[in-house]
Give the backbone structure.
Amino acid sequence: MPGKVVQLAPLLGLIDIPFINYLSEIGGFDEMFLPYMLADEKSLAHRGILRRRLAGVNNRKTIVPQLLSNSAVGFLHFANELYELGCRKVNWNMGCPQPFVVEQNRGAAMLRNLESTKALLETVLPKLKPELSVKIRLGYSSADEFSAIIEMFNSFEISELIVHARTAVQQYSGEADRSAFVIGAQKSKNLVVYNGDIVSASDTNGFQLLNLKGFMIGRGAIANPFIGQQIKGEECGNMAARFQKFCIDIQSWYFEHGTQGSVNRLKELWKYFSKSFKLENEVFALLREVADKRIFAEIVNRIFSEYETVF
Ligand SMILES: Cc1cc2nc3c(=O)[nH]c(=O)nc-3n(C[C@H](O)[C@H](O)[C@H](O)COP(=O)(O)O)c2cc1C
């Protein structure tokens, strides 16, 4: 759908700064969201620490850091420091369903108590320097909660409301509920961004919403790094060759700069990269048990010379 904003979703443990930099070289994504960092009142990070967190980012204007917080003091401190470091927008994570997050009244727990979330926003927004983007779910335990959530956000002017179209209780299971999203999002005074299960450009068709700002894509962007360009109708060139370069560039970065865990990190990415090969299961099976960097690199070379991609 040309004309819409395309955002890369935050994926903790999967996507980080080197991935983002190489994806920027491919193009098609307007903004890339960093996985969440805790913005707690008790752990107010100094600018130096935040600067290190952003180290290596090629373009800070397209990066959106995400904060996990239920503290106005903590959120404002981190967000305003990030602004001084060049970030024009921050995202508030109000969608994380992990039990250890929810138990501390952070992430999706904030959708269960709209009164206190509203009070937090009332305190934060007047003093916030960067633009505010918020990432939510359809509800905590039911999509029936969605319209009350939208209404609460209608009291504020924010940059966008990004909706992962599942409930928190669903976590990542079942299909994302596009129709519940469209019905509820129509009532939003803020612009909305759809998120959930977009794996091809055609998945962005059929959203009849005047206030739709764009799409956020997570796992689908690892399997197909050209999805942003395809959504925008841009020329993608020789995708098979570009895909190989993308995978190898990321791998080289990890093998040069990464820690002991580099092979495991790459294996997580290959769970998705392998979806872009015609024999997906066979390709991933070749890498599943490998622990050694050199052998891993050899097998990856073999995969690219012997297996056909879908591009
Ligand atoms: C491994 C993993 C890590 C994630 N980390 C975050 C995170 O740090 N912050 C966040 O808001 N969502 C996080 N999510 C949710 C995604 O951003 C996204 O909302 C979800 O995967 C649905 O989009 P997709 O179907 O395009 O992947 C994570 C999801 C996965 C699978």
The chain is about 40% helix and 15% strand.
